[in-house]
């Protein structure tokens, strides 16, 4: 499905296994009761409006609570977190008890959006989650909208990470919020085996930077250099709940493509390529 304003979703197909949606969710009428075989779902609204009360990602998520593989973007994360304040207690938590693989497409990453990730992990517990993929934006945080580097966003005290074995974070730049997220994951996943952090692509030539600027991307947000050695030292000093976790930091061109999410090829519009 690719839709600007979807108002009704009914799936009556017992054999359907995948559901992929990119667009704006603007309705309260969802039903996946007829999709008993549904195993994976991709829900992305990057670049579309998602902040009104009518954008009911919570209801959609509840209908998809039985899937094993799920990809969501900040629209879902923020709606779940914000709605906790306004919904009755019966609506939460939304357990994802079959979920084994989760991918988060983060078109923006700052303290506010870090709090949405934490809120989602707390309110949508996934006790059998094995793989977590987080795709950060390739661009640096907007300095005009960034929060203070010293701001501390507290992660949830209890998260069911007992089965979490693998975490991969793409476009890792080592910003304050990114390091806080990695610190949280390392501190909570006591059976984690592998944490793979992949740096974003760096323009090879000045001409490439100019092309991005022509595309209305401020030059101050384009990553032109990453000190991997310094990042290695920071990562090595972080406390780790798992005694056998292996932390790997890679350049973009050395990314291990064998460790990719199921929805690797579904990164929304081509125009969002450099933002994601």
From TrEMBL:
<dbReference type="InterPro" id="IPR006566">
    <property type="entry name" value="FBD"/>
</dbReference>
<protein>
    <submittedName>
        <fullName>FBD-associated F-box protein At1g61320</fullName>
    </submittedName>
</protein>
<dbReference type="InterPro" id="IPR053772">
    <property type="entry name" value="At1g61320/At1g61330-like"/>
</dbReference>
<feature type="domain" description="FBD">
    <location>
        <begin position="157"/>
        <end position="250"/>
    </location>
</feature>
<dbReference type="Pfam" id="PF08387">
    <property type="entry name" value="FBD"/>
</dbReference>
């Amino acid at each position: 499905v690719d839709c600007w304003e979807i108002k009704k979703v009914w799936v009556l197909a017992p054999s359907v296994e995948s559901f992929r949606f990119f667009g704006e969710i603007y309705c309260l009428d969802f039903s996946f009761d007829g999709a008993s075989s549904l195993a994976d779902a991709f829900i992305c609204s990057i670049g579309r409006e998602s902040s009104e009360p009518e954008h009911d990602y919570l209801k959609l998520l509840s209908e998809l609570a039985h899937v094993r593989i799920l990809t969501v973007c900040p629209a879902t994360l923020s709606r779940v977190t914000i709605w906790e304040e306004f919904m009755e207690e019966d609506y939460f938590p939304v357990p994802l008890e079959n979920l084994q693989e989760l991918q988060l497409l983060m078109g923006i990453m700052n303290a506010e959006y870090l709090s949405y990730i934490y809120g989602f992990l707390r309110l949508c517990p996934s006790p059998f989650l094995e793989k977590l993929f987080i795709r950060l934006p390739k661009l640096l945080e907007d300095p005009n909208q960034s929060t203070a580097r010293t701001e501390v966003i507290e992660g949830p005290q209890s998260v069911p990470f007992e089965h979490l074995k693998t975490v991969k974070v793409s476009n890792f730049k080592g910003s304050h919020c990114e390091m806080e997220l990695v610190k949280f994951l390392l501190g909570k996943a006591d059976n984690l085996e592998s944490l793979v952090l992949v740096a974003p692509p760096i323009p090879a030539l000045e001409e490439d930077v100019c092309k991005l600027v022509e595309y209305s991307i401020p030059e101050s947000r384009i990553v032109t250099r990453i000190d991997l050695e310094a990042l290695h030292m920071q990562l090595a000093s972080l406390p780790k709940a798992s005694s056998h976790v292996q932390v790997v930091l890679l350049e973009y061109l050395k990314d291990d493509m064998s460790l990719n999410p199921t929805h690797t090829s579904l990164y929304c519009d081509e125009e969002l390529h450099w933002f994601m």
